[in-house]
UniProtKB/TrEMBL annotation:
Limits of the Ig-like domain: 47-135, 150-234
Organism: Trichoplusia ni
Descriptive protein name: Uncharacterized protein LOC113497776
Listed Gene3D superfamilies: Immunoglobulins
UniProt xrefs under InterPro entries: Ig-like_dom, Ig-like_dom_sf, Ig-like_fold
Amino acid sequence: MPVSSEEMVSGYCGSHVLTVFTLLILFECIISLKLLELRVPAHVALGTRASLSCRWALGPADVLYSVKWYKDGREFFRHVPRDHEPRRKFPLPGVDVEQWDSSGSNLVLSAAASGTAGRYRCEVSGERPLFPTVSGHADMDVVVLPTNGPVLTGLESTYRLGDDVKVNCTSDRSRPSNKLSWYINGEPAPTTALLEPEYQICEDQLEITTLGLSFKLTKHHLKKNEIKFKCLATIASLYWRSIEESALIEREHVRDQSPIQHIDTEERAHSNLAPSLPCSITIVLMFSFSLFIRLCKITTG
């Protein structure tokens, strides 16, 4: 069935309108609202204040509608510039906003508690008609720092070559657990000398970590008749404590070489004396011969 010219024009215009609309949507996607940066600390110490930051860029035709903050899917702060009350807080266990800026992009939370840990999301929306929206999320963990540093057990005051060295490093209670690292004479201990770490969970859900060190003492470990042990305990970038102790190494007595040197000295002495012996005999003989001549003269006279 032949197609009329009106239908052809209608189809042609319709396809062009669809193409233009598609291009407009793509153009909006390219130059529209963008989330530039979201800063949420991965770890925050118990009782300290965490700072949150969300940066965005509006497109040429965009107008900011709202900035909303969520934790684990629940809203706890909102900034809507056109509202009668632009900034609002919503009650949420473990999360309380103490400070904020005029744009709602920077927040400071109150002292962190165990309920502060979770996933935080920043959502930024533009005005109508398209209401472009961007968001980003990041996780935060609350750290219970140890009260004391690590301790060493099993270390002897002195060792001898060939002895088996067995030392333990134990951390104080924390959450999450401490990461322990061993150093021997300032160098990282070889993995062959490390035992499997042991974890103990306390009643308050805090953890104690123990890492053992076991190896045989060789000449490779000698350093000015001592060996140094260092254990380093860390938790993310918030905690860094170490303990270092030393032990003496009794070297085996080296056989004294002086008798050999003494023998060599005696041999040299004898060798130096040998050339002088004929000279002494010659002097004695000459003296005896001179005395004999004098006696003969006296007798003849």
